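Sequence in, structure out.
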Amino acid sequence: MRAVELIAPRTFRLTEMPIGDPGPGEVQIRIEAVGICGSDLHAYSEGAVGSTPNVYPMVLGHEPAGRIVKAGAGVTGLSEGDRGAIEPALYCYHCEFCLSGHHNVCANIRFLSNPHHPGFFRERVNLPVANFLSIPAGMTFDEAALAEPLAVAMHSIRLASIRPDETVAVIGAGPIGLLTIAALRAARAGRIWAVEPLAHRRELARRIGADVALEPGEAAEEIHAGTGQRGVDCAIDCAAGNHTTVQAIQLTRNAGRVALTGIHSTPLVSMDGSAMRRKELTIFNVRRSNHETQEALDLLHAHAAWFAPLVTHKRKIEEMDEAFAIASQYRDGVGKIIVRP
């Protein structure tokens, strides 16, 4: 089967990879759509995701959807041709964290698209049936590929305990920020501010559900004025940029919450410790999702029109260099790019 490997920073190659038959309890899935994620862009541009360095060659991509082409022994309830979204994490289910329900921080997790665990920029993959979530007949593969990042957004909102009518600032209106805005809308949050330097992303934020979209330089004055100088109940940092985490702290009210959803480029992150202490803020660190994918699929199915503006570009697997160049340079009004293996 064909696959695209990252062999050096900003360098892909199209190659062939072997694949056997699915084992007992597994299905073989033909990958039909994969979204390009922010962590893929970190690996592509920086040679690492946070403190985890790349190990070349590696296959990226962890926002997949596809159809079953083979079923292994013992598989029931699924058959050839079934369509679904795919969960990219493999958990051990027996460590202390899995046993306490924190599967997303499993001590033995294998997350496909990390070093030594090939991701989904390839034509086929064998996976346990538990990692395949069937999708409704009317849902496209492009829509289903949004389930994994939407599940991350929903997990962040659940972790930060967003309640109806609470005010929220979402910093960064890239794909994960846009999906966070949609998830906040579904959670019946109150006024939602999006903070984003790029004009086309501010427009996408408005279309997806932000009440106000602001440039970073005007955010503090506007948000404090709009909350009676109180600040928002929760700020969600989806950008993880040089100053966005500090800005999230500054925008949040006393005894409020800050959720860190984006992935910082460096292990050490600057924070306004004085403001955190003075306000007695609670900081939530978001680690992917924890079984919210089915809930994400339900939301995508129920409100497809909300998410329609997000997918702006589609490319074939042979066009991976172009797809990543567009995404990493924020070109051509890009929102989410879908790659078709």
